[in-house]
Design brief:
Elements lengths: L8 E3 L8 H16 L7 E4 L1 H10 L23 H16 L5 E7 L15 E5 L2 H14 L3 H9 L9 E7 L7 E4 L8 E4 L1
Antiparallel strand pairs: 1-2, 2-5, 3-4, 3-5, 6-7
Length: about 200
């Protein structure tokens, strides 16, 4: 395809994966780290355009306020054919060939942006193996954009949920003996490193 915005799935090592308007803040950060030579688990991101295409196919683009209810079209019904094809190809490439387990991770467009971190607002699903479970987890990631906690956060930070989108990362899980994290911009200006 000629334009990055027309892509439904983008590997994290693709040059377009650093575009937060295409893949969301979390995926764009992972792509920048990977492309800088740091070790990042393999991953493919279903883009914001996949979310928008599915939202349109579900018939909720014009009435986004209905999304997130018990009869949520993201959690039921058929995926739009191009979205299903992109998801199937991503799942086959990341999980099925080697039997690896996946992390299915939300990556909202306004996430990790200045003034709107969205820390703890969106969902991640770990240990996903089958295509069916992957579809369920992807739909749940899309729907979490419309959760009560996320909507409250958006209201408090002047973000219009109807004008944003949710990308979803399919990423291999690393079976680690130890894990940790680092925060390079805490309020005190130092750095915080945690490990277990």
């Amino acid at each position: 395809m000629s334009r990055a915005s027309e892509r439904l799935a983008v590997p994290l090592d693709d040059p377009d994966a650093v575009d937060a308007e295409l893949v969301g803040g979390k995926a764009a950060t992972l792509a920048r780290l990977l492309q800088a030579g740091l070790p990042v688990p393999d991953g493919i991101c279903l883009t914001a355009d996949a979310y928008r295409l599915q939202r349109a196919a579900a018939g909720v683009s014009g009435s986004a306020e209905r999304v997130g209810t018990a009869d949520d079209p993201y959690l039921q019904g058929t995926l739009a054919a191009p979205v299903a094809e992109a998801l199937d190809a991503a799942h086959a490439q990341i999980a099925e060939g080697s039997g690896r387990l996946l992390a299915v991770r939300s990556s909202a467009l306004r996430e990790d942006a200045p003034g709107t971190s969205f820390a703890g607002q969106f969902d991640t699903f770990l240990g996903i193996a089958t295509r069916v479970d992957t579809v369920t987890a992807v739909r749940a990631c899309w729907a979490c954009l419309w959760s009560t906690r996320a909507l409250r956060y958006m209201l408090a930070h002047d973000v219009d949920p109807g004008r944003t989108a949710m990308a979803v990362i399919l990423q291999t899980i690393i079976e680690a003996r130890a894990a940790g994290g680092a925060l390079s911009r805490p309020e005190d200006g130092g750095a915080v490193v945690t490990g277990t």
